[in-house]
């Protein structure tokens, strides 16, 4: 019997470059299995594919070892944030307020 195959995309954006790879995997594969099949860790040695946070089309996957992928899914590998976005906005607003106060 022929095993059904689906195509999915795996994407990772490092600070300096992005890679989007289309791979074929067996139907019924999990997110983690597809990720390992992508060999994205060969392209980015700093990635730990067994621990990195993942998502599909912008939605975080709680358990990638169980979640089954579907044909056409885009698996996204997330990297840690360098700064808290709320803190960055707060600092930017404080600097703008200081600049405004100096110009008055």
Automatic annotation (TrEMBL):
Family matches, as InterPro entries: RnfH
Pfam families according to UniProt: Ub-RnfH
Family label: Belongs to the UPF0125 (RnfH) family.
Name of this chain's protein: UPF0125 protein OC940_08615
Native organism: Pseudomonas koreensis
